[in-house]
């Protein structure tokens, strides 16, 4: 029986760490991001190059992936909405309309659309089905300079809880989790550390975490997310956090 992972933003960072964990467990993987990672191609991962903010293309591209799967032989399928961005860091009045729109589209609109397509397409399939939304501690705590990021991740938490309510009475429904990965050593953190104190008041804390070697690493985070996906004791709709080792 086959297990499948479909992930957004697998080309680097946390997405790449998640892919490594699923790959080590024999899962067939499809990753969608703007660029292709040569190492992943060598490992037999199917990579689709797409700017996800072009939301008019999502249905056609994801139905193409879904149509490659075999209903009879699939035992588990997971969709991980991982691609995300901080957008521009700075107080709201400094942000332009296009950045606000694109950030919310990638962080929030895309997971809504992909979750909708996933639930609809696989409704009558016997396989175990799960959606994991990669959220952030910033969904629960306002940070100066991150208004769009905080709000877009907060929406993902509520999406997670709402899907769980809607799936509660569905036969073989979708299990959905929101998982915050902690502070992880990726390009996103490099971007954060480049901000000015004027645009991001908490910068010192993030610089210190890096200097102290306190950031989570992508391989550990990937492994823990794999384990959470396979932990059937977790409640549907749970908002979880990866703790460091
Ligand atoms: N790092 C942290 O400390 C941290 C903490 C909490 C939550 N998170 C969340 O974890 C997730 C991954 O973050 P990360 O730190 O791994 O970030 P990252 O290193 O910047 O990676 C982001 C991934 O998303 C893809 N991506 C970005 N924009 C895209 C677009 N328009 N279309 C398609 N793909 C796109 C990138 O691929 P391409 O560039 O090839 O498109 C890349 O694979 C995000 O949702 C983030 O909010 C991160």
Main sheet makeup = 7 strands, parallel
Number of helices, where a helix is a run of at least 4 consecutive DSSP H or I residues = 8
Instruction: Encode the helix/strand succession as letters.
Output: EHEHEHEHEHEHHHE
Domain tally: 1
Q: Compounds present? A: NADP nicotinamide-adenine-dinucleotide phosphate
CATH architectural category:
3-Layer(aba) Sandwich
In terms of DSSP E residues, the strand content is: 15-25%
Write down the overall geometry.
globular
Q: Please report the total strand number as a whole number.
A: 7
CATH superfamily label: NAD(P)-binding Rossmann-like Domain
Helix/strand class:
alpha/beta
| Name of the CATH first level | Alpha Beta
* Helical amount: 40-55%
Uncertain segments are none
Rg value:
18 Å
CATH fold name, please?
Rossmann fold
Distance between the termini: 32 Å
Q: Can you give me a brief rundown of this structure?
A:
The protein is of the alpha/beta class.
């Amino acid at each position: 029986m086959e297990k499948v992972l479909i992930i957004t933003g697998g080309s680097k960072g946390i997405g790449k760490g998640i892919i490594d964990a699923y790959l080590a467990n024999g899962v067939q993987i499809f990753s969608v991001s703007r660029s292709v990672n040569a190492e992943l191609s060598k490992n037999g991962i199917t990579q689709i190059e797409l700017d996800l903010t072009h939301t008019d293309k999502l249905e056609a591209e994801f139905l193409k992936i879904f149509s490659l799967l075999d209903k009879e032989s699939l035992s588990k399928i997971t969709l991980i909405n991982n691609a995300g961005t901080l957008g521009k860091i700075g107080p709201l009045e400094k942000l332009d309309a296009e950045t606000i729109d694109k950030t919310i589209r990638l962080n929030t609109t895309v997971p809504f659309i992909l979750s909708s397509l996933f639930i609809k397409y696989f409704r009558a399939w016997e396989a175990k089905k799960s959606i994991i939304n990669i959220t952030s501690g910033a969904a629960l705590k306002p940070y100066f300079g991150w208004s769009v990021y905080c709000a877009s991740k907060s929406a993902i938490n509520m999406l997670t809880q709402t899907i769980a309510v809607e799936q509660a009475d569905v036969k073989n429904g979708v299990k959905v989790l929101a998982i915050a990965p902690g502070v992880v050593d990726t390009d996103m953190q490099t971007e954060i550390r480049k901000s000015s104190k004027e645009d991001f008041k908490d910068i010192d804390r993030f610089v210190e975490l890096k200097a102290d070697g306190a950031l989570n690493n992508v391989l550990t985070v990937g492994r823990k997310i794999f384990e959470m996906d396979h932990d059937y004791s977790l409640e549907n709709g749970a908002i979880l956090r990866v703790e460091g080792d």
